[in-house]
Amino acid sequence: MLADAVLSLVDKAEYLPVLTRYFQSIATSTENQAFHCNQTLPAIRESHAGTEALTLFEQQVPWPWNDPAHSIAQPDPYDDW
After folding, report:
1. Is the pTM of this model over 0.70?
2. Residue 29: CB partners within 8 Å, gap ≥ 6?
3. φ, ψ for residue 71 (rounded to 5)?
4. Does residue 12 contact residue 52 with C-beta atoms inside 8 Å?
5. pLDDT digits (tens, 9 = 90+) for 1-16
């Protein structure tokens, strides 16, 4: 899954420009939106807190990707069992 590959890059500052382009290209796509809002983006913010790279990233990506307060309910796939 591409979302998992994206998540694997979040702690590497050299990949923030690639992640910026990824989030720009998917814009407000609903596919994987909950995963990225609830897991990928908080991990990026935690890994790069207080850095200029994070500031630049959040300036360049569109909403909802640049809104730390935005979250989406993500159903647990095991709830249906």
Report:
1. yes
2. none
3. -145, 160
4. no
5. 788 899 999 999 999 9
